[in-house]
Design brief:
Layout lengths: L18 E3 L2 E2 L1 E2 L10 H13 L10 H20 L8 E4 L2 H16 L5 E5 L8 H10 L2 E5 L9 H6 L5 E7 L11 H10 L3 E5 L3 H4 L4 H4 L3 E5 L10 E5 L1 H6 L10 E4 L4 E3 L13 H15 L3 H20 L4 E4 L9 E6 L4 H10 L2 E2 L1 E3 L4 H7 L4 E5 L6 H21 L4
Parallel strand pairs: 3-15, 5-6, 5-7, 7-8, 8-9
Antiparallel strand pairs: 1-2, 4-10, 9-10, 11-12, 13-14, 14-17, 16-17
Helix pairs in contact: 1-10, 2-10, 3-4, 11-14, 12-14
Bound molecules: 4'-deoxy-4'-aminopyridoxal-5'-phosphate (PMP).
Enzyme class: transferase
Protein name: cysteine desulfurase
Cofactor: pyridoxal 5'-phosphate
Length: 415
Amino acid sequence: ERTTPLDLLRADFPALDQEIRPGVRLTYLDNAATTLKPWPVIRAVQAFDAEYPANVHRGIHALSERATEAYELARAKVARFIGAEDPEQVIWTRGTTESINLVAQSWGRAFLKEGDEVVLSDLEHHANLVPWQMLAKERGLTLRFAEITEDGRLEPEAVERVMTDRTRVVAISAMSNVLGTVVPLEPIVAMAHERGAIVVVDGAQGVPHRAIDVSAIGADFLAFSGHKMCGPTGVGVLYGKREHLEAMPPAWGGGSMVMRVTRESSEWNDLPYKFEPGTPPIAQAIGLGAAVDYLSKLDSGAVAAHERGLMEHAHRRLSAIEGVRILGPSPEHKGGIVGMDVEGVHPHDLAQLLDREGVAIRAGQHCAMPLHQKLGLAASGRASAYLYNTTEDVDRLADAVDRARHLFKDRRPRR
Ligand code: PMP
């Protein structure tokens, strides 16, 4: 069996080491939905709750100061992780969904007008589609969709084809949560900027898998979620270029986001607080800081190679099973996600049969209904790997898929 040094990391993730039912060990391959948490993240959250569970930026007392320090340190860590110039450009949100809504509702409402166009792609998750639909309806915008290739890749030329002189926003996923497709962001950003459009990157899948450097890519906004990168649920990030964040009005009002308040009006606080009304997700942000520390200590090249190896193995094993169609591009064009359609087996049945063997995958439309319509599928199965998955996990997946396929094949009515 092939093993990698990354196998050693498994001990850091307590949830990996369990039987989901007596005698059935867990094989966790639902990482695109959410990842497991390593001890340093669990301990960081626990330390906050146990030792200094105070509110931030308010109390002039020791616990509040300690909480504020840890919370702002986490922001600085996340800023460094994505190559942001300044921690003030990292806005805490509840996750990718809220981050994209914030851009649409704040930047979009302030700067888009009737007839303006927003370019999206076939690959988009509902989180990077519905907020734009809502804004389009309100403001009379046109949405245009860059089409994927037959094998599920997104070529920069496809984006270029739908750009016009009315394009103001290109909102694009860095990596598809259904097909695993990695999108070539740099040429897309360059083309958009040439035309004076801004680029909003949905990094929910991209950031966890290959650290995105916003300075290198030049994206105007980047949205991502803590829980898909070893961090807690309930916290995410919106990164924005300073000029945009300065120009944007707040989307929500409340405490902390204001400097001075009278009965009639208010003055906004500075970045990043202008966008963070109310008590923020303090424990979660501190946990995300710990997650970023954890990921930063790993060799990102080795992690990428490990995930590539897992995908190559998954493609080899799954494509050898009769009736299994792998969705999306070949491993060199994607991250650690393998979408599949198994002839004669509904994805929900597939997921249920796999679960009996302890193999956790996801089945359904994965919040990407238009993509499934394009693929001509009612639903799909999705296995998604992360740094702690092993070749043996992929083998257990393939063996279970093989058994599911046979079970249904044998059951099919004969004519
Ligand atoms: N975009 C993509 C590509 C995703 O995979 C997800 C999560 N499935 C989201 C956006 C939404 O993330 P969240 O639910 O954490 O807001």
